Amino acid sequence: MSNWERFTDSFFNARVMAEYLPKIIDGFWLTVVLALCIVATGLAAGLLLAVLRAMGVRVVNWVIVFAVDLFRALPPLVVIALLFFGLPSAGLELSGFASTWLALSLVLMAFAEEIFWAGITAVPRGQWEAARSTGLGFLQTLRYVVLPQALRLTIPPLTNRTIAITKGTALASVVAVQDILGAAHAGVSFSFNPSPLTLGAAAYLVLFLPVVVLGRWIETRFAWKP
C-alpha cells in the first residue's frame, strides 16, 4: 500500500464515513442548538449588565466589573470544568450541555458587556443632555436615544466576538456532550480510524463558514465611516 493509499484509508475511508455520518449529523444539530442558546443568553445578559452599569450605582458597578473581568480572564474550558465537575460538590449537578451553555454564555456575557459599555460611552454626552432637556427620563433617554446609536457602533466587534465564542462549542466534547466533535471522537474510538474527524471538520465548515462570511458582511455594512 502506497503512502497516498494509507492516507486516504485513514482520513477518507468511505465505509467508516458512511457508518458514522448519521452520528455526525445528530452532533451537527446539537451544536446548532447549543450555539444559538449561547448567543441568545450571552448577548442578552451582556446588554443587561451594560444598562445596569450605565445607571451609575457604584456598588453595582464594582460587582459588574469584577464579574466581567473574572470571566474574561478565565479560559472557557476551565469554566466548563468548574461547573461540570465542581458544582456537584455543592449539591448542584448540571448536565454537560447545561454546563457548556452556562459557561460559554458567561464568557460571551463578559465580552459583550464591555463592547456594549464601550458603545454607550462612545455616544456624545450632548446626546444625553439634549434628550433630557426635552423631558425624557434617564431610562427613556437610554432606550430611545443612546442605545440605538450604541448598538450600531457595537455590531462589528460584537459579531466577531460572538463567532469566536460559539466556535468554543467544540469544548463540549470534554464533558461528554455528543456535539460534532464528541460524535467524531466517539467514531474514532469505535472504528479505530480517524475518518470521522474528517467528517467533523467538514461539518464545522458547513456550520461556521457561512457564519464567518455573514459576519464579514455585517462588519463591512456597519463599519464606522468618516
Architecture blueprint of SSEs:
Blueprint: H1 3-11, H2 14-54, H3 58-73, H4 76-86, H5 96-122, H6 125-133, H7 138-166, H8 180-191, H9 195-221
Helix pairs in contact: 2-5, 2-8, 2-9, 3-5, 4-5, 5-7, 6-7, 7-9, 8-9
Structural notes for this entry:
With 226 residues, this protein is mainly alpha-helical. It has one domain: MetI-like fold (Orthogonal Bundle), CATH 1.10.3720.10. Helices cover 80% and strands 0% of the residues. It has helices at 3-11, 14-54, 58-73, 76-86, 96-122, 125-133, 138-166, 180-191, 195-221. Helix 2 packs parallel to helix 9 and helix 6 (125-133) runs antiparallel to helix 7. The longest helix has 41 residues, at 14-54. The protein is elongated, with a radius of gyration of 22 Å.
Short description:
This protein is an all-alpha fold and 226 residues long. Helices cover 80% and strands 0% of the residues. Helix 2 packs antiparallel against helix 8.
Instruction: Extract low-pLDDT stretches.
Output: none
CATH class: Mainly Alpha
Strand pairing plus helix content: what structural class?
Answer: mainly alpha
> What's the mean pLDDT score?
86
Q: How many domains make up the 3D coordinates?
A: 1
Number of contiguous helices: 9
Stated plainly, the CATH topology is called MetI-like fold
Strand content: under 5%
CATH superfamily: MetI-like
Radius of gyration (CA) equals: 22 Å
Features:
single chain; 226 residues; mainly alpha; MetI-like fold; 0% strand; elongated
